[in-house]
Every structure is written in C-alpha cells, then in structure tokens.
C-alpha cells in the first residue's frame, strides 16, 4: 500500500485564501457583483488545481450540500444525514425516494467529466438532445451563460429546479475549462431567486457564486488537511485491502463499512481503527448502520 508523497500538514495552511475585499464587499449593481464573482471564481480555480486538495472528495461533499439545498427548495425536511442514509444504506431493489434521487443526481453529475452523456446519466428523465439544447441556450461570459441556461430550463420546465441548477453549474464549468462540474449555484441561490429573470437573475447568480466559492475554498482547506492526515496514518493499517479502502475515503463523502473491499468484520475493524487514529469520523452517531467519512 503506497501513496504519493504529500505536503506536510502545516504547508496546507498556505492554500490561497480568498481576499477579504471579496468576502466583505456588498453591492447591488450588476457590474460590481460580476467583478466580485469573477474574482472569487479565479481564486477557486487556483484551489481546484491543487494536488493536495482531494478533488473527488470535495466535489462529492459539495454535491451533498447542493442536494440538501435543492431538497429544501421543494419543502421537504430531509437534511444531510437523511440524504446520506437514503443513498448509502440502500439495499438491492430499494428506491431512494425523492430526496435520495436528488442527492444521486448531484453525485452522478460530479463523478465524471462534464459531457452530455454524463449529464444524461445524472438526469435520466431528460433525453440527451434536450440537455444539449439547454446547454446551448447560454451565451457570453461564464456567469452570464450559466444564468441563461438556468433561465432557459426553468422557462421550459418551471418545476425542474434540480436539472436547471445542475446544467447551470455544468455550463459554468465548461466555460471555465474545468473538467468536472463543481456544485456552486445551488448552495446559495434562494428559492425566490429561481423566479427571477434577466439581469435580476444574473445578479442573484453572481452573488450566490461569491458566497459558495468562499465556502468551497474553506472546505478545500479543511479536506486537504484531513486527507493529508489520512495518508500519513495509512502505512499503519495492516488489513489486506486497506489501501483501496483509503482511496475510497479520499473520493467519497461517506462510506458504509459494507462498501469497503474487505470482509464485513475486517471492514468494521478498519473503520474503528481509522476513527481511533483521528483519520475519519463516524457520521451518524448510531451504534448500527454507521457511515464514515474524512
């Protein structure tokens, strides 16, 4: 079991921080919020290029936050813990329910490089030609295009908040040259924002991206430190298959022991050992049906 050499944990404090003039600025004018969102996305672009940030884990964790926000839009009560249960504790033949389907859509959207086929896998009720048409609805600068895609989807399908937000983030990723979709818009747009159009919607999208980019940068720094610690303790793990298990923790928000490539008892022991070493956390607070994550 080997892992690439990683930066000392102290070095992770050198991750680029969002400038205070971005995080503290307040403005209502389109040109001002556009400038701030551009600055925040440029900063986030640097963070997403860092090898010490576990990018797959970051996207999966952001997918959970995006799903939680979308579920709240629909008036449902499920929060992060319930969404995790709905997806990670599914048995063969079980259905995840509406909230679980929302979470699965976001997880699938971030798993693979952005493409019409990958987005079709995340949004199976929409045919590829419809997805491609919506993505082509946007023109102009990255945030302008994302807002136009969001508006186009909601104009045609007013209750399709999840597809609209997924495709808006996909359009943004494509314009920024990011290989994968990074959930940003869903986390900080309000339900009332989704009823806006034109410049009002663009202002709301710019404002939401500033807030979500700040949150994503903070989460990146936290996950980078946690991932570095997990990699540092990995050589202490003696179980066969532990290396593959560690790789799963570095790419997934939550992992059930039954999903690990070890026998059930060995998987539970490995999870307990990782908790003891401070490398992962138990996420449910339960004695049974537990989930673990970095």
Question: How would you portray this structure in words?
Answer:
The protein is mainly α and 294 residues long. The protein has helices spanning 20-23, 30-48, 55-73, 80-88, 97-111, 116-122, 128-135, 142-156, 161-176, 185-188, 198-233, 242-249, 264-276, and strands at 281-282, 292-293. The chain has a two-stranded antiparallel sheet. Helix 3 runs antiparallel to helix 5. The radius of gyration is 20 Å and the shape is globular.
Key structural traits:
mainly alpha, 13 helices, 2 strands, globular
Largest sheet entry: 2 strands, antiparallel
Structural class label: mainly alpha
The Rg value, from CA coordinates, equals 20 Å
Report how far apart the termini are: 19 Å
Query: How many strands appear in the DSSP assignment?
Result: 2
Number of helices: 13
Helical residue percent band: 55-70%
Short description:
This protein has 294 residues and is mainly alpha-helical. 59% of the residues lie in helices and 1% in strands.
Topology:
Blueprint: H1 20-23, H2 30-48, H3 55-73, H4 80-88, H5 97-111, H6 116-122, H7 128-135, H8 142-156, H9 161-176, H10 185-188, H11 198-233, H12 242-249, H13 264-276, E1 281-282, E2 292-293
Antiparallel strand pairs: 1-2
Helix pairs in contact: 2-11, 3-5, 3-11, 4-5, 5-6, 6-7, 8-9, 8-11
């Amino acid at each position: 079991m080997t892992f690439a050499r990683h930066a000392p944990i102290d070095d992770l404090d050198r991750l680029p921080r969002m400038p205070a003039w971005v995080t503290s600025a307040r403005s209502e004018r389109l040109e001002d919020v556009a400038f701030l969102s551009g600055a925040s996305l440029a900063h986030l672009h640097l963070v997403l290029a860092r090898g010490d940030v576990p990018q797959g884990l970051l996207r999966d964790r952001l997918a959970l936050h995006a799903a939680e926000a979308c579920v709240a839009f629909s008036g449902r009560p499920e929060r992060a813990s319930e969404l995790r249960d709905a997806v990670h504790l599914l048995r063969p033949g079980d259905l995840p329910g509406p909230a679980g389907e929302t979470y699965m859509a976001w997880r699938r959207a971030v798993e693979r490089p952005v493409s019409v086929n990958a987005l079709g896998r995340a949004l199976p009720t929409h045919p590829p030609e419809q997805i491609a048409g919506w993505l082509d609805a946007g023109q102009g600068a990255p945030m302008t295009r994302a807002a136009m895609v969001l508006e186009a989807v909601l104009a045609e399908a007013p209750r399709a908040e999840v597809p609209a937000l997924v495709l808006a983030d996909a359009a943004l990723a494509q314009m920024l040259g990011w290989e994968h979709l990074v959930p940003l818009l869903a986390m900080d747009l309000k339900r009332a924002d989704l009823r806006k159009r034109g410049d009002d919607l663009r202002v709301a999208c710019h404002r939401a991206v500033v807030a979500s980019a700040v949150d994503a940068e903070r989460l990146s720094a936290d996950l980078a430190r946690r991932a570095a610690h997990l990699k540092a303790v990995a050589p202490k793990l003696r179980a066969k298959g532990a290396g593959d298990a560690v790789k799963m923790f570095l790419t997934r928000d939550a992992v059930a022991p039954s999903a690990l490539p070890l026998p059930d008892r060995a998987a539970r022991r490995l999870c307990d050992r990782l908790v003891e070493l401070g490398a992962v956390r138990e996420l449910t607070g339960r004695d049974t049906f537990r989930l673990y994550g970095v």
